[in-house]
Amino acid sequence: MKVYEILKEKGNKVHCICPEATVMDAVALLCGCNVGSLVVTDGTGAVKGIVTERDILRNVAAYSNNRIKVEDIMSKGVVIGLPDDDIENIMKVMTQKRVRHLPIMNKGKLAGLISIGDVLKSLQDEKDAKIRYLENYISSGYLA
Fold first, then answer.
1. Using one digit for the tens of pLDDT, what is the confidence trace for 5-28?
2. With the C-alpha atoms ordered 63, 69, 70, 75, is the resulting torsion angle positive or negative?
3. pTM of this structure
4. Is 128 helix (H, G, I), strand (E, B) or coil?
5. Superfamily for 3-139?
6. Which sequence spans correspond to the domains of the chain?
7. How many other C-beta atoms lie within 10 A of the C-beta of residue 54?
Protein backbone atom coordinates (compact mmCIF):
# COMPACT_ATOMS: atom_id res chain seq x y z
CA MET A 1 0.00 0.00 0.00
CA LYS A 2 1.15 3.52 -0.76
CA VAL A 3 0.82 6.78 1.17
CA TYR A 4 -1.42 8.29 -1.52
CA GLU A 5 -3.97 5.55 -0.81
CA ILE A 6 -4.22 6.66 2.83
CA LEU A 7 -4.54 10.28 1.76
CA LYS A 8 -7.27 9.37 -0.74
CA GLU A 9 -9.31 7.77 2.07
CA LYS A 10 -8.40 10.26 4.80
CA GLY A 11 -8.33 13.41 2.70
CA ASN A 12 -5.56 15.92 2.28
CA LYS A 13 -6.75 18.63 4.68
CA VAL A 14 -3.76 19.81 6.68
CA HIS A 15 -4.02 22.30 9.50
CA CYS A 16 -1.19 24.81 9.22
CA ILE A 17 0.09 27.74 11.22
CA CYS A 18 2.66 30.45 10.54
CA PRO A 19 5.94 30.59 12.49
CA GLU A 20 5.09 33.99 13.99
CA ALA A 21 1.85 32.77 15.60
CA THR A 22 1.90 32.43 19.36
CA VAL A 23 1.83 29.12 21.12
CA MET A 24 -1.58 30.08 22.51
CA ASP A 25 -2.75 30.50 18.89
CA ALA A 26 -1.43 27.00 18.20
CA VAL A 27 -3.16 25.58 21.28
CA ALA A 28 -6.45 27.17 20.21
CA LEU A 29 -6.09 25.76 16.70
CA LEU A 30 -5.12 22.29 17.94
CA CYS A 31 -8.12 22.21 20.25
CA GLY A 32 -10.51 23.79 17.76
CA CYS A 33 -9.58 21.36 14.99
CA ASN A 34 -9.19 18.38 17.33
CA VAL A 35 -5.75 17.52 15.95
CA GLY A 36 -2.40 16.68 17.52
CA SER A 37 -0.10 18.63 15.24
CA LEU A 38 0.11 21.65 12.97
CA VAL A 39 2.43 22.00 10.01
CA VAL A 40 4.32 25.29 10.21
CA THR A 41 4.37 26.99 6.80
CA ASP A 42 5.55 30.33 5.54
CA GLY A 43 3.62 32.69 3.27
CA THR A 44 4.53 30.64 0.19
CA GLY A 45 3.33 27.36 1.69
CA ALA A 46 6.84 26.02 2.27
CA VAL A 47 7.09 23.66 5.24
CA LYS A 48 9.29 25.20 7.93
CA GLY A 49 8.52 22.84 10.80
CA ILE A 50 5.84 21.02 12.70
CA VAL A 51 4.45 21.84 16.11
CA THR A 52 2.85 19.09 18.15
CA GLU A 53 1.14 18.73 21.48
CA ARG A 54 4.39 17.28 22.78
CA ASP A 55 6.39 20.32 21.63
CA ILE A 56 4.04 22.56 23.56
CA LEU A 57 4.06 20.44 26.70
CA ARG A 58 7.85 20.05 26.63
CA ASN A 59 8.36 23.79 26.43
CA VAL A 60 5.52 25.27 28.46
CA ALA A 61 7.47 25.02 31.70
CA ALA A 62 10.47 26.76 30.16
CA TYR A 63 8.50 29.89 29.29
CA SER A 64 6.20 31.93 31.47
CA ASN A 65 4.31 34.14 29.04
CA ASN A 66 1.59 33.75 26.43
CA ARG A 67 3.56 35.44 23.66
CA ILE A 68 5.82 32.52 22.81
CA LYS A 69 6.07 32.08 19.07
CA VAL A 70 5.52 28.77 17.34
CA GLU A 71 8.93 29.07 15.66
CA ASP A 72 10.52 29.07 19.14
CA ILE A 73 9.19 25.60 19.98
CA MET A 74 8.45 23.84 16.66
CA SER A 75 10.39 20.79 15.57
CA LYS A 76 12.75 21.78 12.77
CA GLY A 77 14.29 19.54 10.14
CA VAL A 78 10.93 17.96 9.48
CA VAL A 79 10.91 14.38 8.22
CA ILE A 80 8.60 14.15 5.20
CA GLY A 81 6.99 11.42 3.12
CA LEU A 82 6.02 11.18 -0.52
CA PRO A 83 2.72 9.94 -1.98
CA ASP A 84 4.35 6.87 -3.56
CA ASP A 85 6.17 5.75 -0.40
CA ASP A 86 5.30 2.27 0.82
CA ILE A 87 3.46 2.23 4.13
CA GLU A 88 5.93 -0.30 5.58
CA ASN A 89 8.81 2.11 4.85
CA ILE A 90 6.86 5.03 6.31
CA MET A 91 6.31 2.98 9.47
CA LYS A 92 10.07 2.32 9.71
CA VAL A 93 10.90 6.01 9.22
CA MET A 94 8.34 7.14 11.79
CA THR A 95 9.62 4.56 14.29
CA GLN A 96 13.31 5.32 13.72
CA LYS A 97 12.83 9.09 13.82
CA ARG A 98 10.33 8.83 16.70
CA VAL A 99 7.69 11.00 14.98
CA ARG A 100 3.94 10.56 15.13
CA HIS A 101 2.99 12.96 12.32
CA LEU A 102 4.45 13.05 8.84
CA PRO A 103 3.81 15.80 6.28
CA ILE A 104 3.42 14.40 2.77
CA MET A 105 4.99 16.47 -0.01
CA ASN A 106 4.15 16.22 -3.70
CA LYS A 107 6.23 18.20 -6.19
CA GLY A 108 7.37 20.60 -3.47
CA LYS A 109 3.87 21.25 -2.13
CA LEU A 110 2.19 20.02 1.03
CA ALA A 111 -0.19 17.25 -0.08
CA GLY A 112 -1.38 15.92 3.27
CA LEU A 113 -0.45 14.76 6.73
CA ILE A 114 -0.52 11.22 8.05
CA SER A 115 -0.25 10.08 11.63
CA ILE A 116 1.12 6.90 13.12
CA GLY A 117 -2.52 5.96 13.73
CA ASP A 118 -3.29 6.28 10.01
CA VAL A 119 -0.34 4.02 9.21
CA LEU A 120 -1.33 1.40 11.78
CA LYS A 121 -4.94 1.40 10.56
CA SER A 122 -3.79 0.96 6.97
CA LEU A 123 -1.50 -1.95 7.86
CA GLN A 124 -4.27 -3.58 9.92
CA ASP A 125 -6.81 -3.18 7.08
CA GLU A 126 -4.33 -4.72 4.64
CA LYS A 127 -3.70 -7.67 6.98
CA ASP A 128 -7.45 -8.18 7.51
CA ALA A 129 -8.04 -8.23 3.75
CA LYS A 130 -5.34 -10.89 3.29
CA ILE A 131 -6.87 -13.01 6.05
CA ARG A 132 -10.34 -12.76 4.47
CA TYR A 133 -8.90 -13.73 1.09
CA LEU A 134 -7.10 -16.75 2.54
CA GLU A 135 -10.18 -17.83 4.52
CA ASN A 136 -12.31 -17.64 1.37
CA TYR A 137 -9.69 -19.56 -0.60
CA ILE A 138 -9.49 -22.30 2.03
CA SER A 139 -13.26 -22.60 2.43
CA SER A 140 -13.77 -22.78 -1.35
CA GLY A 141 -12.26 -26.27 -1.37
CA TYR A 142 -9.28 -25.62 -3.64
CA LEU A 143 -6.97 -27.31 -1.19
CA ALA A 144 -8.85 -30.64 -1.20
1. 989 988 889 999 999 999 899 999
2. negative
3. 0.69
4. helix
5. CBS-domain (3.10.580.10)
6. 3-139
7. 13
